[in-house]
Amino acid sequence: MKKPLVAAFFALAIAGAGAAPAVAAPVEAKPAASTSGIGTSPTAQPAGAVKAGAAQAESPTLKAVTLAGTVALSNCSGSVVRFPNSLDTAPALVLTNGHCLEAGFPEPGEVVVNQASSRTFGLLNSAGTRVATLRASKIAYGTMTDTDAAIYQLTSSYATIRNSYGISALTVQDTHPTAGTAITVASGYWKRLYNCNIDGFVYRIKEGDWTWKDSVRYTSACQTIGGTSGSPVVDQATGKVVAVNNTGNESGQSCTVNNPCEVDANGAVTVRRGINYAQQTYQFAACFTTGNQLNLNASGCVVPKP
Question: Cα separations (Å) of 246 from 57, 157, 204?
């Protein structure tokens, strides 16, 4: 996790995918002037990253993936998302990390449900230009237990956003992704696209006090940095969201904050310095109605409950 703490601004060595997880940026930092969570200058071009607008010319595989529909938070990235059965008239949703919540990191075992929020999000178009400010009405769901995800409900519907700004929501895939899939991590905070593949899936990731299940491990090309926490992980072939970016091992330590470790089914621990991770999102499709109301008792809804 990249710590979204002011102290991280001075440390220059905080994780870059959502730190508590590893990549949240300092809360008051601005993309053009702040340091990243993992010590990379915000003007530098990390491996696997391309600036918005340049991606199409440099990498034909990215034609279906742009920054359209991503959002910038005060300390993280996110995206406007819908589920396959969401109605156009339903209040839109924003997906980010649980460790990006404005109240700070949820404790292990804590699940936030239907909590009032007026948080704002900067909506980006395909070129990374901010075209609108969207506002939340509540945190529909947020946790760092088993996964690291938060879903905000907005005051605007999908139809309103599309008709007003020409931006459509990204669709969350409702099935488990596949190893080897070409993906793009699209950061609204940094207005950058990171391109790599799903290297595999991790039985458990442990970082500090938190444990996440069946996490996505990237190939080494996705060198996500502080502020990319909450970025949608998009399947390049379908354009659908398959995960939410959240952490990476910064310095090679084992199972500490900003240095997650992998734990297999037998308890064996593996540390992969410089490798970054995401949490799958397909599970959430079964937990929301067509009107985007959370129903944790719905058939097939297996996410942690309060």
Answer: 28, 27, 14
Beta carbons of 121 and 96 less than 8 angstroms apart? no
Give phi and psi for 10, each to the nearest 5: -95, -20
- pLDDT one-digit tens code per residue, 208-234: 999 999 999 999 999 999 999 999 999
Contact 111, 306 (CB under 8 A): yes
Q: How far apart are CA 270 and CA 192, in angstroms?
A: 29
At 236-248, the pLDDT tens digits run 999 999 999 999 9
pTM of the model: 0.86
The one-letter amino acid at 104? G
